[in-house]
Give the backbone structure.
Amino acid sequence: MSHTDNCIKRDHYSKELKNTNVELVTVTGWISSIRSHKNIRFVTIQDRFGEIQIVAKRGTCNNDIFDMIPKLKEHSSISVNGKLQSSEKSPNGVEIIPFQINIISKAEKISPFNNNAKTLESIDTRLDLRAIDLRRKSLRDLFLIRNEILKSIRKYFYQNYFVEVNTPKIISTSTEGGSSLFPVFYYNKEAFLAQSPQLYKEQLTMSFEKVFEISSIFRAEASRTNRHLSEAISIDFEEAFVNYFDIMVRLEHIIKTSLETLNRFIKCQNIVIDIPKTQDVIPKYTYDDLINEIQKTGYDVEWGDDISPKHLKKLGLNDFYFIIDWPNSTKPFYVKDKSKTISESFDLMYGDLEISSGSTRISNKIEIKNKMQNKSMHTNLFDYHLRVFDYGMPPHSGCGIGLERFLMVLTNTTNIRDVSFYPRDVDRLIP
Ligand code: AMO
């Protein structure tokens, strides 16, 4: 055994071991399990791509190495230099007979949860030690899926001439209603954390026509649920010269591309999860129709009320669908009216979970000012926005997709905290 501060340089990742002709390899990673039988000892190392099995047999490897294995601690970071050989029993078809094991960083404590368990009781214990929690394969798989989905969505946007933008997250006004705002001190002024990039993405269609942003949105959600975060990631996009039906078509494409990507990825990574079925066309139900149906089930709802998950559960709606043409009163000031009572708006649902909402926007200054006044808003606070309407604001539409909610659906995950690296909720501000 040799303790060293010098990290011995890896020459192969786990996934490269199967296809190499090299006999002597050096691998690095952290220990995920240690097993000892009479004359044979196994150490499993995990790296960014998967697992590597180290096998030490008494008599065929150095005695020091054989004796040190039971003293190793799970989670320690180590490097192993040794001989690569094929092995039918090992997870990736090869194993390493160690010549040298270096402990690069020793784990001092035993993890409070089992590394290989699929479901664990206390999410709080796990979140308190999130970096270690994320070493678990089932959880890492979720985030690798997240990575692939984001790549494919970005690719979709780039192929369709969208420009990736970043808009301010410290802002001066509310866009989605005042109750869920986080106030912050901004020098000597009151400011807020952005609930969405709404007004900025709309403005940017004036110069770039098609924009998207993937970034944090902040919502002061006082309720404790498995579907709300105080800081979530939103995939926002906005497009000039189109209406809300065109945006729904884009969402159909985004869902289709995401499901194709997901299917390919889980097959190639041997990940076993239930994923939603592909729908070429996503059904649309009007708000009017659904309210009627809900009333028939006996719920006491009136036209103009919000539609809640419990109502949708009762209707037994499954898979993806749109609820379109919401009452004007339920939607924010920037949403265009379709008539005196309803708006050009939609929510994308999966079962009873809202994944996205979007609309055609108001592009006329008088119209948006009237709307703000009807909603008792102070138009002077929005001067910075209203002034751009004097310079040829194009008709435009867009939507925001809650990334974590979309991932919950794609990976059949019930708690939104499991698809957020470091979730923030009413009780959690660390780590
Ligand atoms: P909305 O407020 O409906 O619309 O938000 C868009 C989507 O973001 C997700 N989302 C959340 N996810 C987790 N936790 C939360 N607290 C949370 N709040 C919202 C949901 C939701 O459908 N500006 C508009 C979008 C637009 O019209 O472009 C907006 O923000 O999946």
